[in-house]
Amino acid sequence: MVDIKFNGEYLTSSRGVQKIVQIILGFVVCSVLCANWYGGTSCFGDGRLGYVSGLNFVIVVMNIILFLLNMMNIGTRRFERVYSLIVSILFIIAAGLMLWHIIATGFWSFWYIATLVALVIIFFTLMWDYRLLSDEHRDHLPI
């Protein structure tokens, strides 16, 4: 049985800081993409922006849930390892789609470029998290 208690050390660990950065940048991406209704559609509409904003919204919710689970000292390492790998692939696709949208529309606004940079930073934090989760048991033989 897992001992559920507050894990304050998670806030200062590299994984905790990464999760906080992912959540903050996710809120930035959500606010930029959902601030306007593009051509009469919502931010979760069809197309490239719909994929980026929809994926980001779901991942922000998942990151908040994982953050809270880790704060309660509930072990989710195996799930988070697979989650980090899959989501990092989805985020690099989202960054490519965002770049494609910027080039196709020719709309090089500061906020679109900031969103693209935030997506790339989230991708790198997810890859770093995957690496940290993979290296935790490096001293054991793979059996």
Walk me through the structure:
The structure is a single chain. The two termini are 24 Å apart. The protein is mainly α and 143 residues long. The protein has one domain (9-133). The radius of gyration is 17 Å and the shape is elongated. It has helices at residues 9-12, 14-34, 48-71, 77-105, 110-135. Helix content is 73%, strand content 0%. Keywords: Membrane, Transmembrane, Transmembrane helix. The chain crosses the membrane at residues 20-39, 51-70, 82-103, 109-128.
Record keyword descriptors for this entry.
143 residues; 5 helices; 73% helix
* Beta strand count: 0
Largest beta-sheet details: none
Low-confidence stretches: none
Computed structural class:
mainly alpha
Total number of helical segments?
5
How much of the sequence is in beta strands?
under 5%
The rough form would be described as: elongated
- Sequence of secondary-structure elements: HHHHH
Distance between the termini: 24 Å
Please tell me the total number of domains: 1
Mean pLDDT equals 87
> Helical residue percent?
over 70%
Using only C-alpha atoms, the radius of gyration works out to 17 Å
Helix-strand blueprint:
Blueprint: H1 9-12, H2 14-34, H3 48-71, H4 77-105, H5 110-135
Summarize the structure.
The protein has 143 residues and is mostly helical. The protein contains 5 helices and no strands. Helix 2 packs antiparallel against helix 5 and helix 3 packs antiparallel against helix 4.
